[in-house]
Amino acid sequence: MISAFSIFRIPTSFFLFVALLNWITPTPVGATHSRLKRSSCRPKRTSDGAALTATFSGKGTHNPDDWGSGNCAFTKWPRPAGFGAVAMASNQWNSSGICGACLEITGSGGTFKGIVGNQCPSCEPNGLDLDTDIWNQVSGHKDFGIIQLTW
């Protein structure tokens, strides 16, 4: 007796082709960031437990762009609560390797948390473009302009 399974045999090479295609298909930009846990915004640590941190100084400007519209393409990853959206100066951009980085940003209004979601090619070295919420916090509700920051 002939069954439907014996008539429609799929060659092994087809499965190998599908596996190869799945392996070489590029992952969309930002897709790996969508798996980050909100608790992952902590300083990385060295083998001896010391935090991997550095402090930079630069100018802060205001950027009203939407979180998902930035170069990091976080279209399906909501901005973590309590973190302001930040665009990073080109000298720190690192070919988008800085996407999703969590920063502590200090200005005249205090220290607040930000997360990198975009590049700022017009920013001076070590400068940050801040969304409206974090601008108001860090600047102490100053009018939009330029402020001095450390981060």
Automatic annotation (TrEMBL):
The keyword NADP does not apply. SUPFAM superfamilies: Barwin-like endoglucanases. Keywords: Signal. This is Expansin-like EG45 domain-containing protein. Residues 1-31 form the signal peptide. The keyword DNA-binding does not apply. InterPro entries: Expansin_CellWall, RlpA-like_sf.
